[in-house]
Design goal:
single chain, mainly alpha, about 50% helix, flat
Length: about 70
């Protein structure tokens, strides 16, 4: 029987992850964690929506601070 959760099998290209270089990845990771908390009933629907709105606001602010040389939100 398969495990219900993902597991780490290997790490390729190991390097530090920072908001400046990996903002898209971090946003999707945080968004996924919020959804998992909601699905596991650790967050109510209103709590989830509020947290997601705050994450979206944080993302917009982070994008404003990025250098504009070919960086896309």
């Amino acid at each position: 029987m398969a495990k219900p959760y993902a597991s780490l099998e290997r790490i390729d290209n190991n390097r530090p992850i920072t908001p400046e270089t990996d903002h898209k990845f971090l946003y999707r990771l945080q968004s996924g964690l919020l959804l998992a908390l909601k699905e596991n009933e650790r967050l109510s629907e209103p709590q989830y929506r509020y947290a997601q709105e705050q994450l979206d606001r944080q993302r917009r602010e982070q994008i404003k601070k990025l250098p504009q040389k070919g960086v896309r939100p």
